[in-house]
Write the C-alpha cells for this entry.
Amino acid sequence: MTSTVVRLEAKTDARLREMTGVERWSMDERVADLLERYQLELFWNRVDALLVKLKAYATAWRTYQDAFDQSLALVPGGGMIVIYPLNTCCGG
C-alpha cells in the first residue's frame, strides 16, 4: 500500500486521533469514513437543491410525481421504497 504524508494543524490531528482511538479505527479508516460521509452529504444536498428547483415549476413537479407513482406500481405488492440520507435517518 502506498502512503502519503498529510500535514494537519495540531488541533485537527488531535481530534482525528481522539476519534480513531475511541472507535479503535486506524487513521486511514477514519479518514476514508469521513470522506464517504462528506460525499453522501454533498449528494443529498444536491438532491435537495434540485427538488427545490423542480417544485418551483408546477408542471415539472407534477410530471415527477406521476413518474414516481408509476414506478411504485412496479414494486411487488405495491409497497413503497423509502430512501433516507444517512444523516437524517436511524441515527446515522
Remarks:
- The two ends are 30 Å apart (CA to CA).
- The chain has a mean pLDDT of 81.
